[in-house]
Design brief:
With about 1000 residues, the chain is mostly beta strands. It has 6 domains: about 325 residues, YVTN repeat-like/Quinoprotein amine dehydrogenase (Methylamine Dehydrogenase, Chain H), CATH 2.130.10.10; about 90 residues, Sandwich (Immunoglobulin-like); about 90 residues, Immunoglobulin-like (Sandwich), CATH 2.60.40; about 80 residues, Immunoglobulin-like, CATH 2.60.40.1220; about 160 residues, no CATH class; about 50 residues, no CATH class. Helices cover about 15% and strands about 45% of the residues. The chain contains 6 helices and 71 strands. The strands form 15 sheets. Strands 46, 47, 48, 49, 50, 51, 52, 53 and 54 form a 9-stranded mixed beta sheet that branches. Strands 20-21-22-23-24-25-26 form a 7-stranded antiparallel beta sheet. It is elongated and about 175 Å long. The chain starts with a helix and ends with a helix.
Length: about 1000
């Protein structure tokens, strides 16, 4: 803990003593924060100065001559009245509503001196100059009226209300009918005023999470927001707005400590800001000379009333302490009228109305109205319109978007001025190149001119109406857009051809033009069929034809734009075909009962017609074996409706052929309803699926006579036996997978009868008797298993048993092939090859082989097998010709069979085994040599392990000592550093 405190003191000392710049930086930040937190007075012009009043001294006589004849005010929060502005006849009248009112605002019509009073949050009373109730205007239910402003040029009025925590801004005509409404969420209205150009300024307070944030909105006369500005201020209880003749807005924001006056230009740019000390100001008013006045008091007890006077540049011209009391309401024309209280004893307040000269604040008169309180609302009749309106323009002809191409086009507008007379009206025509003006003539307020459209470049042209009144107020906000178009539309069809089964086809097209829409018509074969009068420019559009018959239609689309220019598409041909082709069963060939033989040619035909065009006629033929073939039928010459094909029946076919006719037209209408067929009925004696007339293989393998063959297989060309055979094929007979004989036979010359064939196979004989069925001579090849043969004899003659071959191999057509054993031998056309386990005889015409075995073949085979370590006879490392030594065995290079051992090989292997045994070393000597080698290896491994085992304790102790040494050094250096601190 002591150490921690020391560190803390050092850190503090380091910051404060060693780094004085940090202290300076912190103090500077605090000073800047305090400076920014204080509202700085006299923040002067930030934008261009508009409407600066240079004539600050207005003569009192002029002021008196232009002052309002009356002053309208509210007394005691329950009664509103009118007082003579001369102060001689104070009360002209007082009016008290039947129900206790809650007043919010008042406005005066200078033309009639009628007054408008808002009360009870939903009603506006209209009183005459004499104080009689003229009418009552109500706002919609649910709105709570806060402020309103009157446009006396047409007696419409704008209201600012609250609804459900939001602000509603609406316009009503003179009869109280709503014209439009705008709503702003989380806002509450404070003040509203109408500018010289007819825009409406509206001040509101945020009712959401930022209660000190206020907004100044500017809307045009149609309720479209022009801009808004956020204004940060302390919570305000009362806010006030007024405007000068140039449209600039003055905002007064009073609060409990001081007030702030700000000026904004008509475009929303802040001009200047003034902070009015610690006084609580209540009202801002601009007189007829654009001088700004502010009234209020200091909020003390008793209060002291004050008046401020500013020019439009924000300069304070006068600051007057008026009297002891309050000033709550203020309105100025060429004089200023204030409503407040006055006290003579500092205790009792009396309602007072006072009139002041605007040039020096000298009081003209004041009227005491007894011990009443006031709602701080006062008004005088304005001497200039809140909306200095330029001439009002109503567009008559042409209408906006009119399409024109040439000729003269009349332009006619109605122009009226509320306050003054219309002086000049011009029409400016601008199509993006060089604008020009048209001079107009006036006929009872309707101003006319003729436009020669032929002189206007094609495209969109804008006609702007410039209307000036006698005081040079200009209205140029009204425009008419016309489309000048002398080029016909370009029309494109989506398809170059069109085929359909729909009798009401849809045609897609697109047109491009200067105009935004056109009237487009579908023509089929030159006849009007369908139309659309409002096709949008450059947009894919569909025209659907009325019901059509099957036929060809030459199709076009015509588009006429608003300037009466016509454009046609290129023509396409539409094929309407909704009917399937016509076919009849009676026309079909062959009939379903017809019989025929295989290899015959059958005519397949059908008669077919279509309303337009046939595309193809097909026959779907299902064979007896289930396979399906699709053939095309062609049209016969001189028979336009008949389609046929010649079909050759397969030779192996036997059974029912089913035919379905498929007829398509050019529009893919299909008729597949007609079926027919024919029957092939032929015998198949051997049941192999091949009819007898085309069967070149009689019988099956069960018809072959065999002896000693466990599983006979016959292969012809490597294919199954149930196929039609032609040409020369390779035929093989097998016992399982072991080949016995193979030969070639030309099935196109003669067939084979398997029942005439005999195969006899024993351990020493192989007899093949084919009864002269084979038509290719000298082509048989026999295979016999070599089972330790001693002699071989071949008899190339048709024989039926092994006894037909002599033991001495001296009979007729007999040849000894004993020399073939273990090698090869050729005698005449016959070639013998011994592959070890199999002996092959080639080029035999007939087929008989007989062999003899050695007497001890069985025992010798057993001995060679044991001596060879499982080998079938590698011959002591020597292999016969055609064999290769693989893992101790002789393997045939082609068949992969293992070579059998010969007797002489077995004897030689035994002799070699004895020699090997004699050459082996004595057991004792060999054991000694092996033991010495093992001992040397053990000795080398033992020395390293002994070293590790014997000195392991020293290793551990060394590591521990090293760790302790490092820790000691670290503790020593840390302790020394701490003491030095």
């Amino acid at each position: 803990m002591v150490r921690a405190k020391k560190v803390d003191r050092r850190v503090t000392r380091s910051v404060s003593m060693r780094n004085p710049y940090a202290v300076i930086f912190i103090v500077t930040l605090l000073a800047l924060f305090v400076f920014l937190a204080i509202d700085t007075p006299d923040v002067k012009i930030t934008g261009a100065v508009v409407g600066v009043d240079t004539n600050l001294d207005v003569q009192a006589q002029a002021e008196v001559a232009n002052t309002s004849p009356y002053v309208w005010h509210i007394m005691n929060d329950t009664t509103f009245g009118m007082t003579n502005a001369t102060g001689i006849e104070p009360n002209q009248w007082n009016f008290t509503p039947l129900t206790a009112p809650s007043f919010t605002d008042v406005a005066i019509d200078p033309n009639t001196n009628n007054s408008y009073w808002s009360l009870n949050n939903d009603t506006i009373y209209v009183l005459t100059e004499a104080g009689a109730l003229s009418s009552t205007l109500r706002i919609p239910s649910g709105l709570s009226l806060t402020k309103f402003v009157l446009n006396y040029s047409d007696l419409s009025y704008y209201t600012a209300s609250t609804v459900g925590g939001n602000m509603n801004f609406s316009k009503y005509n003179s009869s109280g009918v709503a014209q439009w409404s705008v709503e702003k969420a989380s806002h509450s209205p404070n003040a509203i005023t109408l500018t010289a150009n007819g825009s409406v300024a509206l001040l509101s307070t945020d009712t959401g999470v930022f209660p000190n944030l206020h907004y100044l909105f500017m809307f045009d006369g149609d309720g479209v927001q022009q801009w808004n500005k956020s204004i940060t201020s302390a919570s305000i209880s009362v806010a006030s707005l007024d405007r000068d003749s140039n449209g600039s807005i003055y905002v007064l924001l009073p609060n409990s400590s001081h007030s702030r006056l700000e000026k904004y230009h008509l475009n929303g740019e802040l001009a200047w800001r003034e902070v009015l000390g610690s006084l609580i100001q209540d009202e801002v008013s601009v007189d007829n000379n654009d001088t700004i006045f502010v009234s209020g008091d200091n909020g003390g007890f008793p209060s002291t009333a004050n008046l401020y006077k500013f020019n439009t540049a924000g300069k304070i011209l006068l600051n007057l302490t008026a009297h002891v009391g309050t000033l709550d309401g203020l309105d100025c024309d060429t004089a200023c009228y204030a409503l407040g209280t006055n006290t003579t004893d500092g205790l009792t307040n009396q309602l007072m109305i006072a009139k002041y000269y605007s040039n020096n604040f000298s009081q003209i008169w004041n009227l005491s109205m007894g011990g009443l309180t006031s709602s701080s609302i006062i008004a005088v009749r304005p001497v200039y319109s809140p909306k200095v309106s330029p001439p009002n323009v109503t567009l008559l002809i042409p209408t906006n978007g009119t399409n024109l191409s040439s000729g003269l086009q009349a332009i006619n507008v109605s122009v009226k001025s509320v306050e003054d007379t219309v002086d000049t009206v011009l029409f400016e025509v601008d199509n993006g190149t060089t604008p020009f003006n048209l001079t107009t003539t006036n006929a009872s307020g309707n101003w006319n001119a003729n436009l020669n459209v032929s002189t206007v470049v094609e495209g969109v042209a804008t006609i702007t109406v410039f209307a000036n009144d006698s005081v040079n107020r200009i209205n140029n906000s009204n425009t008419i857009k016309i489309n000048v178009d002398r080029t016909p539309p370009t029309v494109r069809l989506a398809n170059s051809t069109h085929g359909t089964t729909d009798t009401t086809p849809s045609i897609t097209f697109n047109y491009t033009d200067f105009t935004i829409s056109a009237n487009c018509t579908l023509y089929l074969n030159g006849d009007h069929n369908a139309s659309n009068a409002a096709v949008v420019n450059n947009t894919d559009t569909i025209l659907t034809a009325s019901t059509l018959n099957d036929a060809l239609y030459v199709t076009t689309v015509n588009c006429t734009d608003g300037s009466s220019n016509k454009g046609n598409s290129s023509a396409i041909t539409i094929t309407v075909d909704a009917t399937v082709p016509n076919v009849t069963a009676s026309d079909a060939l062959p009939s379903s009962t017809s019989f025929t033989n295989s290899s015959n040619v059958v005519e397949i035909s059908i008669n077919a017609t279509d309303t337009l065009f046939l595309d193809d006629v097909l026959a779907n033929i299902t064979h007896p074996n289930g396979s399906i073939f699709l053939v095309a039928l062609s049209n016969r010459t001189n028979y336009p409706n008949k389609f046929n094909v010649s079909f050759t029946v397969p030779r192996t076919a036997n059974g029912n052929f089913n035919i379905t006719f498929v007829v398509n037209d050019s529009n893919n209408n299909r008729n597949a309803t007609i079926k027919t067929g024919f029957i092939i009925n032929m015998t198949d004696t051997d049941g192999d699926g091949v009819p007898d007339p085309v069967d070149k293989l009689t019988g099956n393998i069960t018809n072959v006579t065999t002896t000693g063959v466990s599983s006979l297989n016959v292969s012809i060309g490597g294919r199954p036996l149930n196929e039609t055979l032609t040409g020369k094929k390779e035929v093989g007979f097998y016992d399982g997978s072991t080949v016995l004989v193979n030969f070639s036979h030309n099935f196109s010359i003669s067939s084979l009868d398997l029942s005439k064939m005999t195969v006899i196979s024993t351990a020493t004989t192989l007899i093949i008797n084919f009864s002269n069925e084979v038509n290719v001579t000298y082509n048989k090849t026999l295979f016999i298993t070599d089972d330790s043969f001693a002699t071989l004899c071949v008899k190339d003659q048709e024989i039926s048993a092994a006894a037909d071959i002599s033991d001495a191999c001296t009979g007729s057509n007999e040849t000894s092939f004993t020399n073939c054993l273990g090698g090869t031998q050729t005698s005449g056309a016959i070639t013998c090859t011994d592959f070890g386990t199999t002996i092959r005889f080639e080029n035999l015409r007939y087929s008989g082989v007989k062999a003899t075995q050695t007497a001890s073949s069985s025992s010798v085979a057993e001995g060679s097998g044991g001596g060879g370590g499982g080998s079938a006879g590698a011959g002591g490392g020597r292999c016969a010709k055609g064999y290769s030594l693989v893992d101790g065995n002789c393997i045939h290079d082609e068949t992969g069979e293992v070579q059998k051992a010969r007797p002489e090989q077995v004897v030689e292997e035994e002799a070699q085994e004895e020699v090997v045994q004699e050459e082996q070393a004595e057991p004792g000597q060999e054991e000694q040599e092996v033991g010495a080698e093992n001992l040397a290896g053990q000795a080398s491994r033992f020395s390293f392990r002994e070293f590790v085992n014997d000195y392991s304790k020293f290793w551990i102790v060394g590591v521990i000592v090293l760790v302790i040494l490092i820790a000691g050094i670290f503790i020593y250096r840390w302790t020394k550093h701490w003491h030095s601190e």
